[in-house]
Design a protein that fits this description.
The protein is about 55% helix and about 15% strand. The chain is of the alpha+beta class. Strand 21 and strand 22 form a beta hairpin. The two termini are about 40 Å apart.
């Protein structure tokens, strides 16, 4: 199974399986929480069984392999994947197979078994005994024969069921077998190109090991034989990748053997010449050495039967060298770039103004890190950091453009160490720079994100150092102009989001890691820029924690718990924690009660009585504390939820009050909140061509913002207050938190919202069309490149398929994840390029625009883009494609 979509489904299944195992430790098997979790896990596995008969999770050297495919490094580092591997290691399981036909009872029985402590399972006779007779579609430690290459790609042997057959095929490639049956077996196995790739690498490795003991002539003949056999058995679609591997292998061979191979009649790869590709892999010195070797071979050509070989030698010495010369322009550019990079490393600042070299640096640095050349990459970054402090503003502008792209790569690749290292250089530049140009704003915005990441990962000391620079600028302790001061203030305000403040307050109040002083300093740095919309309660907490003595009761209670744990007295720790949970729950201090219950889970995960009972007490107290007026207003919604879900919904809500004529949601902008009207009046309006159209008046009990909250799109309409209005709201990030704990809650809230009239229907009733321009259907490939607000590319281009276009925008399909689609929507700009037929000619479009929506279509997303500048209407008229407006655009 190599379909990446199936692999992604399998990873999603792991996430749900982990959550279900955790819930089984906390709740009785008959609770709604468990039934919901089992149903969700079962649904994910069934989605896989629609395309595959089974899914195999195997552990190899503490890495996870899914149905023969090793996960990439990013997926291997997912916390849920790591937890799943640890579970397998704890039980000594090498592989788990889930087969089609699996039912819910089997799944529940299995998860209950692996949810126990391994030592308890061993006392009961082991997993096999617990599963005997009860589980027929989950198999443990089945014998699977696989080949693993050096890149950790695990390739299924397909029809090759045992080692003997595998070795026979190796002999076929070695030339030790000429039987027709062996060749047919190899052709059958070659239907799996991944398996052929693994087998080929095994064979190449054997050839490399033989070079010390086998004559070069014999080795060259073996390689040619192997290439000819592969050419016979591999289908055309797989040949390109297979022969690319062969080219790399040949280029790494010793000069003696390679010179003999290059003078042979090499098989052709599809659409490529192996000879040319090998030559391209060689540097000038090696090419000169090979030329000398081949001239020596040429001197030995005397016999008539060597004419073919003589032709090959001349082909290399004349045709090959000439073709190499014709490629000199490309090679010359590479040499210029290499020289430029070397000049930078030698300390020459003039290269910072060489646009060609500077444009290449982000990709070069990324490649150096990916190839393990960290020191060289860091050396380049250090020199660029020096360039940021140049007295020449042009140099600073060029260098900051490069480092903005490098930093974006670190952030998106979650390279935290490199991100922190680079942030120190960027902060020095922020304090040094004298003008606010687009790069300055962009990098300051990046540093805001870095600060939030550092807070979320409790790296408070690093964060404090970063925030101090902006605080010094904003407080005028560093003299800067008003524009730079405004940017600094915007960064501090942006860092102080509600979720970040919640995290800081929790870290301060619990002081579990002894970092209270550092958190206090960060709160002080952010204090002047805490958002006006922050609730009074939170502001009071922020003020109070700054005055709160270190020896407060809550912190002292946690220290007592830690003392019991350090002394090995888990019984006393559990009792103290339970009593404290009850105390704080009765006092309605639910955040502290929840923190203590999490600590209880850490101290003794099998203290099920206390864990379950404390959870029930918290939920009951929360339920009794829900405002009656609010619950009565939304009674149909709350009646559809379990007690746990109702509490989760209510306590995730925040409140806000607005005066008359205030805009709550603005048409054409992003919205991350779902509003519940508790009081007042609102109006829903639509703006078009400078006019405002009243769509509907809203009253208490109405929902606002659901059209953009549950999807990836900008708002279609605006919402404005008509009177003093009281609202409760959810923030979009809460949906992520619900995924594991309350997997059906989002769907229930979304279903409730479907009971209200859709905005598209309301617009239709008013005779209003959201689109300002006629759409034209078209299907061509397009190149998409995300940019920052200054037009600087921040990622490598992606390929999509255009589906329709208008004067105002376009829509295209692209294969990306949900998170990536959201990132596109949050990004300031996109550049879209494509070439399409216009009558008998071809026309190119190169437009910048903003993403305004992303709709999921099976495994693709349809991305809608609004152009910054209108497209010429004549271009639309030239596109000769029948109209069929199935997809949306502007």
């Amino acid at each position: 199974m190599t379909d990446p979509v199936i692999i992604e489904k399998a990873i999603e299944a792991i996430v749900v399986l982990n959550a279900t195992i955790t819930n089984l430790r906390l709740y009785p098997p008959t609770s709604s929480m468990i039934s919901n979790s089992i149903e969700r896990a079962y649904t994910f596995l069934q989605a896989i069984f629609e395309q595959e008969d089974s899914v195999v999770f195997a552990e190899s050297e503490k890495s996870l392999i899914i149905s023969g495919l090793a996960l990439n490094e990013k997926d291997q580092k997912r916390p849920q994947v790591i937890a799943f591997i640890q579970l397998m290691l704890n039980f000594g399981i090498k592989s788990i197979v889930f087969e089609k036909g699996l039912d819910r009872d089997e799944l529940l029985t299995f998860l209950k078994a692996v949810g126990q402590k391994p030592e308890n399972v061993i006392r009961e006779g082991g997993l096999e005994k617990l599963m005997t007779g009860k589980i027929r579609h989950i198999l443990l430690d089945q014998k699977l024969y696989v080949a693993v290459d050096k890149d950790q790609r695990v390739v299924s042997a397909g029809e090759i069921r045992d080692k003997e057959k595998y070795e026979e095929i190796i002999k076929q490639l070695m030339g030790d077998s000429d039987s027709v049956s062996d060749l047919q077996r190899l052709k059958d196995a070659a239907k799996d190109p991944g398996w052929v790739s693994g087998l080929l690498k095994t064979r190449m490795s054997q050839i490399t090991q033989q070079k010390e003991t086998t004559p070069s002539k014999e080795l060259s003949e073996t390689v040619i034989r192997m290439m000819n056999i592969v050419g016979q058995v591999v289908d055309r679609n797989s040949k390109t990748e297979i022969f690319r591997q062969i080219v790399i292998f040949l280029a790494e061979m010793d000069d003696e053997t390679l010179s003999m191979i290059l003078t042979q009649d090499l098989p052709d790869a599809p659409d490529e010449d192996i000879f040319d590709n090998v030559i391209d892999q060689l540097d000038d010195k090696r090419l000169e050495r090979l030329t000398a070797k081949i001239r020596q071979l040429e001197e030995g050509v005397h016999l008539p039967e060597d004419r073919r070989r003589e032709y090959s030698l001349k082909f290399f010495l004349k045709g090959g060298i000439e073709r190499r010369k014709r490629k000199d322009p490309r090679k010359g550019r590479l040499l210029r770039l290499r020289d430029g990079i070397n000049s930078i490393l030698k300390g020459e600042d003039r290269v910072f103004l060489d646009r060609e070299v500077m444009i290449s640096l982000p990709g070069t640095i990324d490649q150096l890190f990916s190839k393990g050349k960290d020191k060289l990459a860091e050396g380049l970054i250090d020199r660029l950091g020096e360039g940021l402090l140049s007295q020449n503003p042009e140099v600073r502008a060029e260098v900051s453009t490069v480092l903005a792209q490098v930093n974006f790569s670190f952030v998106s690749g979650q390279q935290t160490d490199q991100m922190i290292r680079l942030s120190h250089k960027l902060i020095n530049w922020v304090k040094f720079e004298t003008t606010v140009h687009p790069n300055y704003k962009h990098i300051c915005d990046q540093l805001k994100g870095v600060a939030q990441t550092l807070i979320r990962t409790h790296q408070f000391a690093e964060c404090k150092q970063l925030l101090e620079a902006f605080h010094l600028i904003h407080s005028r302790k560093i003299e800067k102009n008003e524009a730079i001061q405004a940017v600094a203030g915007s960064v501090l305000k942006g860092v102080a989001s509600d979720d970040i403040l919640d995290l800081l307050l929790q870290a301060f109040e619990t002081d579990q890691k002894g970092l209270r002083d550092q958190v206090d300093k960060i709160l002080t740095l952010l204090g002047a820029k805490i958002a006006p919309s922050t609730s009074p309660t939170k502001k009071e907490r922020i003020d109070s924690v700054r005055e709160e003595p270190v020896g407060d009761d809550f912190a002292q209670h946690l220290k007592r718990v830690d003392q019991h744990v350090e002394q090995g007295d888990s019984t006393s720790a559990v009792k103290l924690l339970f009593d404290l949970i009850v105390k704080y729950a009765k006092e309605k201090e639910f955040s502290k009660a929840d923190i203590l219950r999490e600590r209880l889970l850490e101290v003794d995960p099998v203290a099920l009585t206390e864990i379950i009972k404390s959870g029930e007490i918290i939920e009951e107290e929360k339920s009794q504390s829900i405002d009656k007026g609010h619950r009565d207003l939304w009674t149909n919604l709350y009646d559809s939820l379990s007690k746990e879900e109702a509490n989760a919904l209510y306590y995730a809500m925040k409140s806000a009050a607005f005066g008359p004529d205030q805009t709550i949601i603005r048409q054409g902008e992003l919205n991350f909140r779902l509003y519940f009207m508790d009081g007042g009046q609102l109006k829903l309006v639509f703006h078009k061509e400078g006019e405002e159209f009243l769509i509907k008046e809203l009253k208490p009990g109405d929902m606002v913002g659901d059209d953009s909250f549950f999807s990836i799109t900008v708002c279609t309409t605006s919402v404005i207050t008509l009177s003093h209005t009281k609202l409760s709201f959810l923030e979009k990030e809460v949906l992520k938190r619900w995924e594991d704990e309350f997997p059906t809650l989002e769907a229930k809230v979304k279903d409730y919202c479907l009971g209200f009239e859709k905005i598209s229907d309301l617009l239709e009733q008013k005779g209003l069309d959201r689109r300002s321009y006629e759409r034209v259907k078209i299907s061509v490939k397009c190149s998409i490149r995300p940019m920052d607000d200054s037009g600087v590319p921040v990622e490598k281009p992606m390929t999509g398929t255009l589906v329709d276009i208008s004067e105002g925008g376009l829509a295209f399909y692209i294969k990306i994840s949900k998170d990536k689609a959201a990132t596109l929507l949050l990004g300031p700009k996109l550049n879209v390029r494509c070439i399409f037929p216009a009558g008998e000619l071809q026309r190119q479009i190169d437009q910048n625009g903003t993403v305004v929506g992303a709709q999921h279509h099976f495994y693709d997303y349809c991305i809608n883009v609004r152009f910054d500048k209108l497209l010429d209407k004549k271009i639309i008229e030239e596109i000769k494609v029948p109209e069929n407006p199935d997809e949306e655009t502007i």
